Task: structure prediction
Amino acid sequence: MSTLDSVATVVHVLVGGLWIGGVVFVALAVLPLGRDADVDPQPLETVVDRLLTLSRFAAVVMLASGAHVLYHVTLGGEVSTEPLTSSGRGHLILTMVVLWLGVTATVEIGASKLFDGLDAGKLREPTRAALPWFRAAAVLGIGVLTVGGMLSAGVGF
Ligand code: HEM
Result:
């Protein structure tokens, strides 16, 4: 493994952990405050806006670092779909990509539902509408970290 491959792997795991950690924290600890009207709309909007920025940045970094590791490490520098479709390891990687897409999409939808309502001067109603999307993002995120942990443990090799 080259130094660049090692850096890509470390970045992949680090950014993934920070991203999903942020999503889980907002879903479990921050949004319930808005649902119960225990926080003002402005700080709630700021927190979720920062999470959205983190989420967009992380989504791009995860795709780029994941594609690097896939090509240079998993596939050994060869362009081939066969190892992805014919092995447990490949299936886990494909599952990771699908879950990554799911986390990205659910955070975007949840944030958009929240911002639409906050812009209209509401708090409880948009937070209630956004919560299931952020909970789904948290579950999908825990799923993708679990898949990463399985790959790290050598499952499917
Ligand atoms: C939320 C998004 C993601 C998270 C949290 C995540 C997390 C992880 C973790 C923890 C590992 C184990 C690292 C190791 O021990 O080597 C891993 C491996 C990997 N990930 Fe991801 N990942 C995500 C998205 C992606 C995406 C979008 C791609 C593809 C474009 C990808 C491709 C890979 C590959 C190729 C490996 C190495 C598999 C192997 O051992 O051959 N990941 N990921």
